[in-house]
Amino acid sequence: MSYSDLRKGRVSVVGQVYLLTTVTHDRRPWFGDFRAGCAVARVIHDLALGYPGLSLAWVVMPDHVHWLVQLPEGLTLGSLMRRFKGRSALALNDGTSGGRVWAPAYHDRALRREDDVRAAARYLVANPVRAGIVGRVGDYPLWDAVWL
Q: Which burial class, exposed, middle or buried, applies to 104 when counting CB atoms under 10 A from its CB (0-12, 13-18, 19+)?
């Protein structure tokens, strides 16, 4: 599947809840380094401050990010991901780490009305447990959800 195939049928609907996933270039585990993971978390936090209600839950894994968002007025999925990837790449490429951070594509899935958003958030933040990184969600530092 090519990058352009991922964009086919992509629609940005204001108020719609989306699960977004993006991976690092060549699946490099940038965020196994806690400071790098914190830099990405700060970008998510800053974007959420600029668009109240945007960020519902997120988790930064070693080589990818899952983010549950409710799309606000004035943003498309593409513009949100460009801002996120651009700002986080700048934060990570401060002259010491270098290199391409993100793969060019991202995956989005619109949640249906009947989907339980909190259940989706719980599933998302449990990724480190399912990956065997930690034994319980509370032991992993790089996640957040609005329901805390």
A: exposed
- The span from the CA of 19 to the CA of 145, in Å, is 13
The CATH number that domain 3-135 falls under is 3.30.70.1290
Q: Which residues contact 30 (CB under 8 A, 6 or more apart)?
A: 24, 36, 37, 62, 63, 92, 97, 101
pTM of the full predicted structure?
0.90
pLDDT tens per residue across span 9-68: 578 999 999 999 999 999 999 999 999 999 999 999 999 999 999 999 999 999 999 999
- Which residues 6+ apart lie within 8 Å of 63 measured at CB? 23, 24, 27, 28, 29, 30, 31, 32
- Residue spans of the domains in the chain: they are 3-135
